[in-house]
Specification:
By secondary structure, this protein is of the alpha+beta class. It contains four helices and seven strands, in the order H-E-H-E-E-E-E-E-H-E-H. It is elongated.
Length: about 250
């Protein structure tokens, strides 16, 4: 009478396959848990960033920095103020899509008493008002005080289109490139988004800075930990099945 029990070689092959499967599951669990922990850390960082930016936006304005380096982590969206003279003849129009529709940001250098300059995003104008002659009352002259938020330079262009200074087509607010094109010297490495203070004639429209920080890290963390639990459950099922079989 033949023996129907598996041969030792078959049992060894089955044991190797089982070990490989369990090892793969353990690696997957470790990987998913690591990704979940990383997302929890990212969540903590994002909440701290949102709190810091919210505090900056609501704070009283401080003098715009000129004698120290400015960086996004410490300075972006900081509320500042400065006084100088707008160089209206050197304004640059940058393509913009806002809550008011498509149009342009009006970027104008502000000359300071010490000879330095800061590029000011004076606000939005629709396409039919791109010509300064159509909004003469908004071309402020003489000393003006600007209040707004520090923004970091946006080099090269948008994701879809590159800036073309030679043809006057700008898709991002690249401080260095705009300053070079307009012959502005000693320009600060950042620009200022003006607040909602109304300009004469109503244009440009300031105060349109969008401060949005996508925060899906908790959802991602739950997803990764959930996958880890699913694989752990599958691993337990495989091990229990193997024990029952043996």
């Amino acid at each position: 009478m033949s023996n129907s029990s598996p041969e030792p070689k078959d049992r060894r092959r089955s044991a190797v396959k089982l070990a490989m499967l369990c090892s793969l599951m353990l690696l997957s669990i470790a990987g998913f848990v690591a990704l979940g922990v990383w997302q929890v850390e990212r969540l903590s960082w994002k909440l701290d960033l949102i709190a810091r930016v919210d505090q900056r936006v609501k704070a009283e304005p401080v003098p715009a920095p000129l004698d120290r380096s400015v960086n996004a982590a410490d300075d972006e969206y900081r509320r500042v103020m400065t006084t100088g003279t707008l160089q209206n003849g050197k304004e640059t129009l940058v393509y913009a899509s806002t809550e008011l529709g498509p149009g342009y940001w009006v970027m104008t250098p502000l000359s300071l008493p010490d000879g330095k300059a800061i590029l000011i995003n004076r606000g939005f104008v629709p396409a039919d008002k791109r010509n300064p002659q159509t909004r003469q009352s908004g071309q402020r002259s003489g000393p003006v005080t600007i209040t707004g938020l520090i923004r970091m330079t946006e080099p090269k262009g948008s994701l879809l289109q590159s800036n073309d200074p030679a043809s006057g087509r700008w898709y991002s607010r690249d401080v260095a490139a705009i300053a070079a094109e307009k012959g502005v010297t000693n320009a600060a490495p950042y620009f200022i988004d003006t607040d909602a203070t109304s300009n004469p004639g109503g244009l440009p429209v300031g105060g349109l800075t969008r401060i949005v920080f996508p925060n899906n890290h908790l959802v991602y963390a739950i997803t990764w930990f959930g996958l880890a639990l699913m694989v752990a459950g599958l691993l337990g099922y495989v091990i229990r099945g193997e024990i029952r079989t043996r």
